[in-house]
Please model this.
Amino acid sequence: MVKVLHLSDIHLGSGYTHGHLNPITGLNTRFEDFVATLAHCIDRAISEPVDLVLFGGDAFPDATPAPYLQQAFAQQFCRLVAAGIPTVLLVGNHDQHQQGAGGASLSIYRSLLVPNIIVGDTLATHRIHTAGGDVQVLTLPWLNRSTLMTRSETDGLSMTEVSAVLLDRLRTALEGEIRQLDPTLPAILLGHLMADTATYGAEKFLAVGKGFTVPLNLITRDCFSYIALGHVHKHQVLCKKPLTLYPGSIERVDFSEESEPKGFVLVEVDVEQASHEFCPVPARAFRTVEINLCESTVPQEDLLTAIHRAEIQDAVVRVIYHIRREQVDLVQDSGLNEALRSAHSYTISANLITQVSRSRLPELGIGSTITPLEALQAYLSNRDDLRDLEGPILQAAQALMRDEAQWIRPEMDLIPVPVTIAPLEESVQLRLI
Ligand SMILES: [Mn+2]
Model:
């Protein structure tokens, strides 16, 4: 039985806009938060003690972190080295330099031959001796086109075709590793990837062209006792046999993670099976206070009541209120600042509601067919403030249209391109996944 602590997506150095400068240390308070949470995870690894620590990737915001970030990260993982706990550091998409072309921010640990630290920047199997017995860890770092294919191979292929070829290569490479596994020892797959059945937000769309989604059944092979994942910030179990899960990130990076518990997992692994326990960490709370004041006769009072009701103590708070233009003077910022003093940091934004929307220009309505220039003309003749610029704007537009015509091949005009815009889920993790 091998006892494992699995954490992921540290992103040390992110989300500074939600913090402020600590006047004593001169550091951003969010940096200090992230370090404290990471220290909490390492404390637990040592106090248990666990036999092995697995980090699922994305250590920093990018592959060239500032020296103070590198140092803070190293100081924490160095404690595992001192305690004699073997550790695997997997390379995530944020750790790769130029999409895999120039090494990774974590490779330094291998170059320095730090004992008991293994850097997972290639698809490879590592046999690790731990206090709980020997274990095999197959590392699967973030893969992108350039990892598995040369440029000439991808030339002329569509995105879907590239994905199909990549998955095929991954299947073959994985099979090669699996065949060499020792069936008498527990085997763990440690991967930084987007599984097709995971719950995530806009990163799915943002990652188009950069990486690809891996079908869960490609990795959930019975030769593995445990499949340890990284990349998605929301903690979730994808499969019970073999146990496959994302521990999620350890600190909130933005408000999309407001309602997600943050933590790591402790996993007991043997050849046949694995069981886990999610351990929450004291990550800083994020709170949204949102209220519609349009119907309120005492908007300031109602807003203050809403703020007092929320648990804002030491939290990163955002206050959003909706208000009519004529009520704006009824809300005083000074009173709000006072009410929000116990928050760690806060932002206040007023959303002005215009009750009577302007009627559309009839000539631009549905059913009328006009050229782009006629549309511009109709728009300009309804904008008194642009009257002086009407001539020059029309001239500029004509010149642009002429220019454009040179670049448009006639056949391109004739092919309708179907565009499907999928609705984004509410919990978007835009920047960091
Ligand atoms: Mn990632």
Remarks:
- The first strand starts at residue 2 and ends at 7.
- Confidence is low (pLDDT under 50) at residues 202-209, 409-417, 423-431.
- Residues 57-58, 92-94, 192, 231, 433 surround manganese (II) ion (CB under 6 Å).
- The chain is about 30% helix and 20% strand.
